[in-house]
Structure formats: structure tokens, C-alpha cells
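ok trying this again, last paste got cut off
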Amino acid sequence: MSAKTYEVRTYGCQMNVHDSERLSGLLEDAGYVRAPEGTAEGDADVVVFNTCAVRENADNKLYGNLGRLAPMKTKRPGMQIAVGGCLAQKDRDTIVKRAPWVDVVFGTHNIGKLPVLLERARIQEEAQVEIAESLEAFPSTLPTRRESAYAAWVSISVGCNNTCTFCIVPALRGKEEDRRPGDILAEVETLVSEGVSEITLLGQNVNAYGSDLGDREAFSKLLRACGAIEGLERVRFTSPHPRDFTDDVIAAMAETPNVMPQLHMPLQSGSDTVLKAMRRSYRQERFLGIIEKVRAAMPDAAISTDIIVGFPGETEEDFEQTMHVVREARFANAFTFQYSKRPGTPAADMEGQIPKEVVQARYERLVALQEEISWSENKKQVGRTLEVMVAEGEGRKDGATHRLSGRAPDNRLVHFTKPEQPVRPGDVVTVEITYAAPHHLLAEGPTTGVRRTRAGDAWEKRTAAQTEKAGVMLGLPGIGAPAPLPAPTGGCSIV
């Protein structure tokens, strides 16, 4: 009898992406196998939706997808559908009422229960809804099917203690809970021993790490400790909050060689008035002061940000303050969002909701300015020689252009000429940048160096094992490094 197949569909932030790795690991530990690439919609035995609740139309998107699966499920006895994540935590019984063909609903705090709930639903032939109010087990203690052999997320905390008026995450993920430093470092060391060479420390408010432990310098100490792990080449983290970004963190970044010269620092608005309405506990001067200190310590650091346009009550003057900060900070890139009501947040009921056409016009002006700055900042990279970690799946046109793609230390995307000698994802190449576009760099000349790595060995070993499994019809899971800064969708990463 062949093993049952599964598919996990992920929406939202980096935390959801990492949770989906846990869900996949749990299912595989229970005997399921990932559905092969190209499997038609509805053909997997188990479909899991890992949801996000922070967009106004998040529920419409979920129920639309569930509606398409309903007739497929009717035709396939034994097929199961599970809904988890933030929307499940928020809506609970509503999901089964609106989509009675769903078998399992679970929340953000009890993802480890998924296999048990699926089996219980199968035996009892009725939907299982189980929403825990507090964390049952830290996600990193659960089995994992990591999406990459050479790069990995490492959760250092869950939850958030902030009360931003546009964000529902604290209500769904709970208060911040920190892992013990020893547990984090043990996980990192294990990953490195398996061939991982790049990690991204992950938390809803990553640099508030230590508040649950009573140590305000715990995060900087953690960065320095990561620097002492042999074989760990690149350390990144996301997403910090300006309120908690202290000088000791800047010093740790600058003084720890494997902590990359890259920083994602959410701005949200440049207006002090809007920041106050958002309950953001910093102001424009404080934010620009952090940027200035980071650049003084790391002149080549690439800084990115998140910005919300059209928050309730935002005036033209407020918006111009945001444009001012963008000009002053000169971000390498920015994830820009038009404000949309997050159901259940204070901002959704605020007066002064901005007309859609005004928000659109401001958004277009902001994007145009940031595009100009991104291109200008990227042009400064032309002529530089960079070490690029080869990635998989980053360059959609690589096959047609006979190029490969990877990430520079500062996280810029680099497309480079394919070298004569074979290289693998996880290996490191040395290239000279010859051209800059707003969102990527090109190295059109010959590769000047190729360093084969243990990470590349791990990728090669994993790929060979998956190819062997594919030969016995167990499927070939996709592989790819978790992008250190994937474009957020308004989820937990936006702090």
C-alpha cells in the first residue's frame, strides 16, 4: 500500500513559512510523503492550509480555495483538509460552519497535534477543532522538513509584546516567549553539522529577545555566540523593532564576521503623528539615528524596510514625512503596502480612513521614489568583487540566460555567468559586478573563483536521496533556501 501524500499551502510571514516546515516534518514523521511536483489540485490525500489573518480579504481567499476543493473531496473518499495558522486561531468554529467539509482546524499554539487530529477525524468521521490558548511546545522541538539543505530558519522566540494598532498578531500568537540560548545554539550547531552554512534567526520581534529571560543584551550575546560556531558562514535575522535596537546589537553586528552587513528595519511611517496613532514607540529622529549608527559601524550595510501608506488619518504632510525619511535613509529596498483594514485591530475602527484613490496615488509616488533610490544604491556595487552564495530557485530566467543566481553578503540578488566548473547551491563563487538594476545585480564576466562547500555537499547528498526516492514513486520535494528577507505580506514580520 502506497503512503498517503500531503500538500502544505502557506500564506503570510516568515514565521508561517517556518511553521510549515514543522507541519511537513510532522506529517512525514507520521508516514505521509509530500505530493510530487505537478500534482493536480485536489489530488493530494491531505491538504493543509497554513493561514494568515492580517489582510482584510484573508478569509475570502481561504474560503475561495476551500470551495474549489469541496467537489474534489466529494469525489475522493478519504481525502482530508486541515486549516491552521493565524486565521484558524482567530475564526475557530466559524471555519467548519462555513466549510463543513474541512476535517481539522488547529491554531498557532498546537501545530504539533496535526497528525493526531487528522487520524481522530478519520476514525470519528467528524471535524476536529482544537485551538490552544497558549503554546504547547516550542516549534523547534517538533520534527522538521526543511526546505533547504544549506540555509535554515532558527526560531529564537514566538509571540509579541507590542500593541501596534494595525496588527492582530499579538492576539493570535500570544505574548513573547524566548527560547533558552543554549537550546538555540545547540540547534544551530546541529544544523551546521548537517551542512547548513547560513541561518536566519527568526522572531516576531527578534531583537526583543531576552525580555522573557530578564537580559536586555541577550540578543547581542546570541549574535556573538553564533560567531564562534565553526562552519557557520552567514548569520541573518528578521525582523527587529526600532524600539529595541540598541547600541550593543550594532556593535555585535559590526564585530562578528559571520553576521551579515544587512538589516531589515521596519519604518511603517515617517510621520511622528502617524507613528503615535500606530502605537509605534519611536519617532522619526530615533529611526534615522539608528540608520546613522548602523552606517557608521558598517558602511556597506544594505538596509531594507516596511512602509504602510494611507494609515487612517494620514495627511499629505504626514506622507511627505515618510518620503523625507526614505530620501534620508536611502534603503536598498522597501516592502511597501497600502493600508488595508485588519479585522480585529484598533485601526480598523479609527476615523479618517483614507479614500482608495488617495492611497493609490501616494503609494505610486513612494514606489517611484524607492525604485530610483534602489537603482542608485545598486549602481554603487558596480565594479565590486563579491562572494556570492549560490542559490536555487532565485533566478527564474537562469535557464534561458545560462546564468546562475545567489545572494551577496548584504542579501542583494546577484545573477552571474555560469562557470565552467560545476557549482551547487550552497557553494560560494567570487564575481565582479558589471551591471545594476533596481532589484538585482549582474556579473557578466567570468567567475573568478569557486569554493565548493560542505553546504554544497549537503545539497548534493539530499538531491541524490530525493532522486532515489522519486524512482520508487515517493515524489521529489522541491528544494530552495528560505529567502533571508522574503517580501512580507503584512504578516507577523511587519513589526
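PB: full thing came through this time. The mean pLDDT is 89.
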